[in-house]
Amino acid sequence: MAGFARSVAAAILLLSMTTVGFAANKVIIILDASGSMWAQIDGKPKLEIARESLRTVLQSVPDADEIGFMAYGHREKGSCDDIQLIVPPQAGSASAISAAADSLKFLGKTPLTAAVKQAAEALKYTEDKATVVLITDGLETCGGDPCALGKELEASGVDFTADVVGFGLTADEGKQIACLADNTGGKYIQASDEKALQEALVETVAAPAPAPEPAPAPAPAPAPEPAKPEFNFQPTVVMAEGGEPITDGNAWEIYKANSDGSRGDSVTTEYGAYSGNLDPGDYIVVARDDEAKVEQKFKIEAGQVYKPLFTLNAGTMLIHPRSSQGADVSDEAHVDFTYPGGSTTHYGDTKIIVPAGEQKVTVQIGVGTATETIQLAAGQKIEKDVVVGVGHVVFNAYYVAGGDKADSSGLGFQIVKAKKKIDGSRDDVEHSYGPDSKFWLPPDDYVAVTTLDLAVVEQPFSIKVGDNQDIKVPLDAGVLAMSAPGAYSIEILSPKKDIQGNRKALGLSYGDAWQQTIAAGDYVVVRHMSDEGHDNEMPVTVKPGERSEITVAP
User: Fold this and answer.
1) Cβ atoms of 411 and 444 closer than 8 Å
2) In whole angstroms, how far apart are CA 130 and each of 67, 116, 506?
3) What pLDDT is recorded for position 233?
4) What are the distances in angstroms from CA 455 to CA 241, 489, 550?
5) Residue ranges under compositional bias (Basic and acidic residues) (predicted)?
6) Are 463 and 441 in contact (CB under 8 A)?
7) Contact at 8 Å (CB) between 373 and 386?
8) I need a labelling partner for 124 at 20 to 30 A (CA). Which of 131, 187, 452, 543 fits?
9) pLDDT of residue 533
10) For the CA atoms of the chain, what is the radius of gyration?
């Protein structure tokens, strides 16, 4: 894991060392905030490695470098438009970028091509020299073509470069995005092989930057003026009274105050330790850290220095959701928090800062839930395992025991309670489609109702806490392929007639060809014409695990 963290750090060093000596150079870092960043390397989520590496390396970036920060996939699941320039390129942005990265929620898709395009446009790449550093642990999932984009940016840009860091990608996966760097004269860094990365760094960033021209001798200094304060507003925020100042991960929102005391236009949003100069006037300042916030009103007067203290009256909770006692932390868990004044949802292992008071924490894994009420004092840090108490089961269906696996997308599994209600029905629990359907279920007796076309099978099973079952459901069915040239419709009937001379209708399809999975047995296939009185029928026997083909002639 250390090698991996250094690889991410080296990628950021690339943007820092290649900008030394070029005052007009600007860089935007793009961080992949898709859901796959929850995957772990040596027991630690990739997103945490990225955050720590960003924080460490950005501390060594020269103050004059203008660095921006963009992310994608951090606000919405399944959206290809979830791209945001969070920190515009500016000098001294290290703390803002670190704080922004720490607050990201990793849950979306990977529109990396569109993100690089937006970053290039934000840097005005057709007018100025521009560099983009993309850190991704996955390939394009929104239909973009990174190779074509690289050629486009190289052709239309003044001096555009894209450097790409492959976050644990395989060599073959890396080739699919390395062209973005190659086509712009940038470097592709494979962040899964430490030795190869070090060799790449020797080639790309080890050469020292050119020494700057000697500065001309300064003109004689004018007579000193009376000293003025560098900043007139230097706030401090603490978690609780008497606590240490918070300087990382927090945010400052500054608004003009309207005459009625309400918030007016936004003045600025800053991150981490903040010192600034505010014009004389009335302001509302909000100090925020995660879900905790507090605001104060100020009247700024010329010549005065203000150093207010903000107390969040909040605490920290670390929630480790587990399916059973002693099980690994579940990345699939939904962790819902209800705290004084609000609520929020996180996923997997969660660290959260919330207002002090009674906290209701509900963890859901599959259809199992566990709720705990926690009293959190201001400044307190509580770490707790929440065990939901479920078992895991994976379902697959087979046409016949030991036969072919049913891999159709039309395959369905409906989980119901085994115990019937007084009216004979059962409570519905959960459902899923396709092979390898996975369920997390509380301990109980259940029935899996497996459906594939006209074949329906009920499979009883039981689950205990901590179970990990793999259930194979035999459908005892075959495939019936029916052809009826010129037919208006095809119908499948039971072979035996009831006392009134009618057969039970099992299925109907319009057209002259139809294929269905159906339980093994004897059937009658009827060819219907649009004109009455021209129906033909044919008996057929379907054998388990076999395909039967028939043609019902006119």
Assistant:
1) no
2) 11, 11, 67
3) 96
4) 67, 20, 19
5) 544-554
6) yes
7) no
8) 187
9) 62
10) 32
State residue 426's pLDDT score.
Answer: 94
Please say whether the beta carbons of 184 and 161 come within 8 A: yes
Q: Give every residue of the chain whose pLDDT is below 50, as ranges.
A: 1-10, 12, 15-24, 193-194, 196-198, 200-212
Amino acid 4: pLDDT: 42
Q: Which amino acid is at 253?
A: E
Residue 306 near residue 298, CB atoms below 8 Å: yes
- 393 phi and psi angles, rounded to 5 deg: -140, 140
Question: What is each CA distance from 31 to 58, 113, 185, 393, 534, in whole angstroms?
Answer: 14, 13, 21, 35, 68
CA 155, chain centre distance (Å):
33
What 3-state DSSP class applies to 56? Answer: helix
Give kind and range of the element (H or E) at residue 58. Answer: helix 46-58
CA distances 305 to 60, 228, 431, Å, are: 30, 10, 63
Binning the chain into helix, strand and coil, the percentages to the nearest 5 are 15, 45, 40
Distance from C-alpha of 123 to C-alpha of 88, rounded to nearest angstrom: 9
State the pTM of this model. 0.56
Go through 519-547 and write b for each residue having 16 or more CB atoms within 10 A of its CB, e for each that does not.
bbeebbbbbbeeeeeebeeeebebebbbe
Only one residue has tokens 């772990």, namely 40
| Torsion 197-198-200-206 (CA) sign | positive
Asked if 254 and 262 count as a contact pair (C-beta separation under 8 A), the reply is no
Rounded CA separation 138/390 (Å): 31
Q: What pLDDT shows up at residue 35?
A: 80
Backbone phi and psi for residue 335, each to the nearest 5 degrees, phi listed first: -120, 105
Asked whether 430 and 438 are in contact (CB, 8 A), the reply is no
CB distance 354 to 292 below 8 Å: yes
